[in-house]
Design a protein that fits this description.
The chain has helices at residues 45-52, 75-82, 98-108, 113-126, 142-154, 172-189; strands spanning 3-13, 18-29, 34-38, 60-65, 68-69, 83-86, 160-164, 192-197, 208-213, 216-219. With 221 residues, it is α/β, with parallel strands linked by helices. It is globular. The structure holds adenosine-5'-diphosphate and magnesium ion. Residues 12, 19, 21, 39, 41-47 line the site of adenosine-5'-diphosphate.
Length: 221
């Protein structure tokens, strides 16, 4: 099992109230799964994803990633090595070209420049997108932007890609293309996906679907 969440609870407190967002939810992801979490805006999808990636800590419960219990001592290195994150927008730094946007995270991860560059070339080549290398993010269509952003996620060869509403800014055709790319990467590279969305078209590509509602996570049959 790649990821196991057990009885995760999370609430947000301010001076006036306490808001329970996750009431003891559990979830499992296998190495090759494409898991989609549906739910309306505000139900806690991003909270759940951020707990998996270690960006926020749960109040209670256990996150087990790749056979290890995630805690404050190892969560950063787990995220660095094994998890990539795709957001609905703002994935790329506007002042860097595509190639540098893809190389930078690898350098931060300890790759030598040459090694990082050849990894990036290999990934762009794989989709016949090498001609995008020197383009700047604001010269990409929203579809190209998201596909490049997704390719950027795979460069370090993570075990899991977390995608938070990755198609929210895309039209029909680009949405379809991104979903196809997710399936292709999942097949060719064998990486798992955890996707939050309210786009029911993910049904076609998901191996497992959940619905988050009222603090509970239920499997969609
Ligand atoms: N840091 C925070 N402090 C207080 N409330 C928060 C915080 N983050 C999220 N929330 C609240 O928790 C609920 C779930 O948020 P979120 O996980 O972003 O939902 P979703 O991604 O499904 O739209 C929302 O009501 C949101 O306002
Ligand atoms: Mg969200």
């Amino acid at each position: 099992m790649l990821l196991r969440l057990e009885n995760i609870e999370k609430s947000y407190k301010n001076n006036f109230e306490e808001k329970n967002v996750l009431n003891g939810i559990s979830l499992k992801i296998r190495d090759n799964d494409i898991v989609t979490i549906y739910g309306n805006s505000g139900v806690g999808k991003s909270t759940l994803l951020n707990i998996v990636s270690g960006i926020i800590n749960p109040d209670k419960g256990i996150v087990n990633f790749n056979g290890k219990i995630v805690d404050n001592s190892n969560k950063l290195s787990i995220r660095k090595k094994m998890i990539s994150i795709l957001l609905q927008k703002d994935n790329l730094l506007p002042e860097f070209n595509v190639s540098d946007n893809m190389i930078l995270p690898l350098i931060i991860n300890g790759f030598k420049y040459m090694e990082a560059e050849s990894r990036v070339n290999e990934v762009l080549d794989y989709l016949d997108m090498k001609n995008y290398k020197l383009r700047y993010p604001n010269h990409l269509s929203s579809g190209e932007y998201q596909r490049i952003s997704l390719l950027r996620c795979i460069c370090k060869k993570p075990k899991l890609i977390i995608a938070d509403e990755p198609t929210a800014n895309l039209d029909e055709k680009n949405c379809e293309q991104l979903m196809k790319l997710i399936v292709k990467l999942n097949k060719d590279y064998g990486m798992a996906f955890l996707i939050a969305s309210h786009d029911k078209r993910f049904k076609k590509v998901s191996t497992l679907e959940y619905e988050l509602f009222n603090g509970d996570l239920k499997i969609n049959e």
